[in-house]
DNA sequence: GCTTGCCTTGACGCCGACGTCAACACCTAC
DNA sequence: GTAGGTGTTGACGTCGGCGTCAAGGCAAGC
């Protein structure tokens, strides 16, 4: 199979495959015309890469999985190096999710505070005899 | 105050300030020597920008807050446009956290599965009269 | 013969938020 | 005088994962 077919079967592009080869991740054999040739095993490697990429793994993080498969192991994660990557990624995800959740709460708090301040100003402006409006209130009044 | 002092007081760099000016976010007055000059108000604007940046807001997303402050409002989020950015960011964060959490669970499941497979293989290898080891088990055996 | 389609290599573009370096001007201190 | 610290503009580099274009080769079909 040549590069176009492999790309199509994996749902990616030829540019991506050439990039992987340049990175040493998915080397290709060549036919007599200098065209890259791949087999079903390469498709398996490629699918492993793409799956991990979809999970947010860096390309370099997929390397242990690919090498594990190429070494003849039944799965990309049949090797200790792959398990280490899994654990490292889990730690990263936990840290990131924690940070994002904290930011989310902070932003939500800021939004509530800002909305209360806005409503307080709007209420004040409606009180007869209350303080006269200072400025245009950011478009709220019209 | 000149650019170096403002940068130091905001805990950032002169390069960053020049970048903000180039983006039209934080324009500077000039003194007779062509040097940028800033006042305390600019420091306030800059701190608003940096706070939002720390939360993961894009530079463009900080613009409504900066313009709100520059329009004389008491806070950067005293304007409706800023509240919209807050809400959009909350939605983004929720979506992102949801995706990351799903990925986290998937990866955790993969890790558990791979560890079970590894342990099963190791146990098999220890059974007297069991199947002979196929290969080197990815470094587990030594 | 000519177009179409697949392949090749090489090289630049992109995104965001700056870092870094070059080459120069200015002021102060020693 | 000169070294050091401040400022200026301009321009290229960074990171990852490719997209996109250029210029060319080789085969099949009309």
Provide an overview of this structure.
2 copies of one chain form a homodimer. Chain A is an all-alpha fold and 142 residues long. Chain A folds into 2 domains: 1-77, Multidrug-efflux Transporter Regulator, Chain: A, Domain 2; 79-142. Chain A has helices at residues 3-10, 14-22, 40-54, 59-70, 80-126; strands at residues 29-30, 36-37. Chain A has a two-stranded antiparallel sheet. In chain A, strand 1 and strand 2 form a beta hairpin. Mean pLDDT of chain A is 90; it is low at 133-142. The A-B interface holds A 55-56, 68, 71-75, 77-83, 86-87, 89-90, 93-94, 96-97, 100-101, 103-104, 106-108, 110-111, 114-115, 117-118, 135, 138-140 and B 55-56, 68, 71-75, 77-83, 86-87, 89-90, 93-94, 96-97, 100-101, 103-104, 106-108, 110-111, 114-115, 117-118, 135, 138-140. Chain A binds a DNA duplex (30 and 30 nucleotides) through helix 2.
In short:
The structure is a homodimer of 142-residue chains. By secondary structure, chain A is mainly α.
